[in-house]
Amino acid sequence: KRFLGFPDSRGRVAPERRFYFQLARELGMTVSELLDRMTASELTEWAALYSLENSEREQAQNRARNKARMG
Fold first, then answer.
1. pLDDT at 22
2. What is the model's pTM?
3. Dihedral pair phi/psi, residue 67, rounded to 5°
4. Most buried by CB count within 10 Å: which residue of 13, 27, 34, 54?
5. Contacts of 56 (CB under 8 A, 6+ apart)
């Protein structure tokens, strides 16, 4: 049995497991504590926030690259 969050035989980690580890680290708790204390609905909302923030970062980077090209 693999420990949750470790890569599979192809070196991949399930995206949701990676998210759990990132959120747990940010909140200062273990993944077990996170999953015990947070509802599925709240985890879904956190995931949506992370996704939105990532999209906003990518858009800002693209705008900065385009601006630099136009110079």
1. 93
2. 0.70
3. -65, -40
4. 34
5. none
Structure tokens at 62: 């693209």
Minimal CA–CA distance to 17: which of 3, 1, 5, 32? 5
% of the chain exceeding 70 in pLDDT: 90
Q: Using DSSP, state whether 57 is helix, strand or coil.
A: helix
> What's the rounded Cα separation, in Å, for the pair 25 and 62?
28
Confidence check: pLDDT of 1 > 50: no
**Distance of alpha carbon 68 from its chain centroid, rounded?**
29
What average pLDDT score do residues 38-60 get?
94
